[in-house]
């Protein structure tokens, strides 16, 4: 049965892999991006999730095209790496406003239709950094850790309405960002990953699709690491 799926930040990287996985399964998939550019075969809407008015407008556009959103993947996020003593307040708040408060905006808007339907799937994309920490990423780590508390609290609020809320925490994944890392740094990373390699975006997408499926109907409030063992024990 084809569902209305919305993936924020679904125009590239992990978000695009997730969107394509849903589309290949026959779902009606919409993606948001700041540019509004549409990846081939996908329906795209322009949306900056730091702007509540744009979030509402994007949802209306998706609802008109595909119906109420039944599966939301809150993936959009940014980095702004800097050591704490050099980090400005603006650099801290910009990352938190996108990654954490932006997710709040899209999730709150999505729950309207889900509550009426008494069903829905909400997936939030966090990071292994949320649990391990990372020097130079206090803003990013704080925002991604916040998603865990947000998601688990929301799971308790919405569970009685048939809505599940889960968090996926990827480790190092092969994207444009990680491709820019030097070979020396890549080898250092491999040494700390028990599986000895960087992950593939499709490996994240498969876990997200599982958590949105009927097979995962009794899973909510979970934090699922997909990190090759990098963050084990957290």
Automatic annotation (TrEMBL):
Keywords: Fatty acid biosynthesis, Fatty acid metabolism, Lipid biosynthesis, Lipid metabolism, NADP, Oxidoreductase
Its biological purpose: Catalyzes the NADPH-dependent reduction of beta-ketoacyl-ACP substrates to beta-hydroxyacyl-ACP products, the first reductive step in the elongation cycle of fatty acid biosynthesis.
Gene Ontology BP term (one): fatty acid biosynthetic process
CDD domains assigned: BKR_SDR_c
A GO molecular-function annotation: NAD binding
Pathway assigned to this chain's UniProt record: Lipid metabolism; fatty acid biosynthesis
Ketoreductase domain residues: 3-175
Quaternary structure, from the entry: Homotetramer.
Positions of the catalytic residues: 140 (proton acceptor)
Organism of derivation: Allostreptomyces psammosilenae
PANTHER family for this protein: 3-OXOACYL-[ACYL-CARRIER-PROTEIN] REDUCTASE, SHORT-CHAIN DEHYDROGENASES/REDUCTASES FAMILY MEMBER
Stated family: Belongs to the short-chain dehydrogenases/reductases (SDR) family.
InterPro entries: 3oxo_ACP_reduc, KR_dom, NAD(P)-bd_dom_sf, Sc_DH/Rdtase_CS, SDR_fam
Reactions it catalyzes: a (3R)-hydroxyacyl-[ACP] + NADP(+) = a 3-oxoacyl-[ACP] + NADPH + H(+)
Pfam family, one: adh_short_C2
The protein's name in its UniProt record: 3-oxoacyl-[acyl-carrier-protein] reductase
Amino-acid positions noted as binding NADP(+) in the UniProt annotation, renumbered to this chain: 9-12, 75, 140-144
EC identifiers of the protein: 1.1.1.100
Coiled-coil region: none
